[in-house]
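Table S2 (text version). Query chain:
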Amino acid sequence: MAQGRKGKLNYRCPRCLMREIDMDMLYDKDADEYYCLRCSFTGDENEIKRLYQQFREKYRDRMTRFTEF
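Corresponding C-alpha cell output:
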C-alpha cells in the first residue's frame, strides 16, 4: 500500500492488523495523533508502538517449527 502524503510516517493500524487487515493510518497534525479510516481507531505514536509490541509478543514464534512438545 502506498504511503499517504498527509504526514511524516503512516503506521499500520494495530487494531486492523490484529484481524489480519493491512490498513494504513493517517496523521492528523492538529490533534497530533494517527487515525484509521476503516475502524476509527485513534492514538498517538506511543500507543501504536505499544500495540505493535503486543502483536509481536503474540506472534513471536510464528515462523518456528516445533517438533517436540
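Notes on Table S2: The mean pLDDT is 84. The radius of gyration is 14 Å.
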